[in-house]
Amino acid sequence: MLNYRHLYYFWVVANEGGFARAAERLDMAIQTISSQVRNLEASIGHQLLKPSGRSVVLTDAGRAVFLRADEIFLLGARIPAEAAAAAAAGSSMRLSVGLSDGIAKLAAHRLLQPILKTAGLKLVCHEGEVEQLMAELALHKLDLVLACQPPRHNFSFRLSSDRLLVSRVDWYGPASLVTDQAIAAFPQSLGNLPILAPTSHAALRNRMDRWFEGIGLQPQIVGEFEDSALLSIFAAQGMGIFPVTELGAADLGKIQELRLLGCSQGLSEEIHAIYSSRSKNHPLVGKILQNTINADGAE
Predict the structure, then answer these.
(1) Which of 13, 52, 56, 252 could form a disulfide linkage to 22, CB 3.0–4.6 angstroms apart?
(2) Is the pTM of this model over 0.70?
């Protein structure tokens, strides 16, 4: 194995142009430095320095070694400053969360609220398909995944999950569609109204389709959206009626154009926290798992 102390002595000699000046810089005997450089040459198997008058110059092999040593020791010189910067940032706490496509973002925000006031928090959120996010979780690129369903039993990575939320699904829409007559006839009025729905990426979509079948309605789906927030914006512009969890609906009051049509019976949304054995020990993940929300949407 390469002796980096010997390499350092060689590097200093090459920079100073001779053993005498290197010895002065290192406050060491010339004979000691010369012996260490010879040991390096022996270990590499090539002469690295050759005399040139009162100084030394690099051989071809020595030039190649010097260029690499230059990179090594210039990088090494940065270590103290980088260590100091890392120590200064040590009070910060990073949490990387994956949000699966179709998850109610407003509900996800509420589930993350217990940790949002953490001093020095750096929260990083990624969105994607649940399979991709769980693979990144297994590779420790994420600390937590929030998804509408737990991992499959045959999933290739060993992951655990807790159900954080079971929340009733409510239906909202623009005032032009949510009339008093439509409210009174709910849920049957949904059969006569344009519906905005989550895409098949969302577990809620499958539950919603089964729910409509159970109450004998064929919905007029006029739009499908992966992003629940985008869905609410299109609804507010008059495009249709859409489902939202009771928990997520708490933030819809900011959109004045929307009115509550009715509350589903037998249709609910689930959000599961998925984590690895390593990420479960993350203090912020533990705090999120401890703040499970019950079926009524109350903490």
Answers:
(1) 13
(2) no
Determine the Cα–Cα distance for residues 159 and 277; give it in Å rounded to an integer: 7
Spatial neighbors of 12 by CB under 8 A, at least 6 apart, are: 22, 25, 26, 33
- Greatest extent of the chain over all pairs of C-alpha atoms, in Å: 104
Contact 231, 242 (CB under 8 A): yes
Distances (CA, A) of 131 to 108, 140, 159, 201, 288: 18, 14, 12, 11, 22
Q: What is the 3-state secondary structure (H, E, C) of the chain?
A: CCCHHHHHHHHHHHHHCCHHHHHHHHCCCHHHHHHHHHHHHHHHCCCCEEEECCEEEECHHHHHHHHHHHHHHHHHHHHHHHHHHHHHHHHCEEEEEEEECCCCHHHHHHHHHHHCCCCCEEEEEEEECHHHHHHHHHCCCCCEEEECCCCCCCCCCCCEEEEEEEEEEEEEEECCCCCHHHHHCCCHHHHHCEEEEECCCCHHHHHHHHHHHHCCCCCEEEEEECCHHHHHHHHHCCCCEEEEECCHHHHHHHCCCEEEEEEEEEEEEEEEEEECCCHHHCHHHHHHHHCCCCCCCCC
Contact criterion met (CB below 8 Å) for 97 and 115: no
Report d(CA 172, CA 183) in Å as an integer.
Answer: 10
* Structure confidence at residue 174 (pLDDT): 93
Mean pLDDT (10-residue bins), the chain, 299 residues:
91 93 91 94 94 90 94 88 69 84 75 86 88 87 89 69 87 94 95 92 85 94 86 90 80 75 89 88 88 47
Query: Tokens at residue 131, please?
Result: 């399979």
